[in-house]
Amino acid sequence: MHRALRLDNVGRRYNLRGPWVLRNVDLMISPGDLVRVEGTNGTGKSTLLRLLAGIDAPTEGRITGRPRTAYVPERFPSALPFTPAGYLTHLGAVHGLSRAAAARAADDWLHRFGATPYARTPMSQLSKGSSQKVAVAQALLADPELLVLDEAWTGLDAAARSELERAVAERTAAGGAVVFVDHDPSRLAGVPDATYAVRDGALDRRTEQVTAPAGPHVVVEVQGPPGGRLPDLPLASARETVPGAYRLTVPASHSDVLLRTLLTARPSWHVVSVAHADLPLDQEDRA
């Protein structure tokens, strides 16, 4: 995502005399941003996400800087005449992959979300949770610059929920932007760059105290190159144990992203050890 997506004085209503669902919305989504959108049912959250995804057009105002976008809707149309593998392979080909590359990408994403056992099952026969895994996979398959998630975690099992959090971290680490709505207030707690609330058709940025997410954490001991400086490690806390060596603590769901960032840095960092942690470090030690 090379430029920001901008909404300037955007409004949306669904017929000429109908009520405004959204009005006077100004918003900028920059590369690497993770943005949470909150609000009660019927306030316009899904309408905002559909505008960001390009599914709906604004009734007034302008949207500029449109990146390559993928969208996971609140309700995915599961009764499609495909199997999950066939559907994802077809989409991969639409995105410009060869048939063989599209099939490999489909298998990879189905495997990541634990959907391999029913990859060749007609989608009309899948459960809600299984269909949701396909919905998430179809969005990530496109390697989007902007990923828009409308209640995408709903219906997923615990392993798939963690995998989606990991995929979100990978997208933002790679410079993509992610905008999401989720009913669980602890979802990615402490991670978003900004949180917005939709109230009565208006969008307000919410100020919140950043707290670390609950759940298992991982401790990573690393040794840096001479004169090296730790790269930006979102959600990681760090303590220098000796000059050039650090003890990093990160939620387990983000450990893969942290390790990949360290190992692909130039110059790279040497990972000395990886172990489970009982408790996360204090917030004042956050990298």
From TrEMBL:
GO terms for molecular function: ATP binding; ATP hydrolysis activity. Keywords: ATP-binding, Nucleotide-binding. InterPro entries: AAA+_ATPase, ABC_transporter-like_ATP-bd, ABC_Transporter_VariousFunc, P-loop_NTPase. Coiled coil: none annotated. Pfam families: ABC_tran. PANTHER family: ABC TRANSPORTER ATP-BINDING PROTEIN ALBC-RELATED. This is ABC transporter ATP-binding protein.
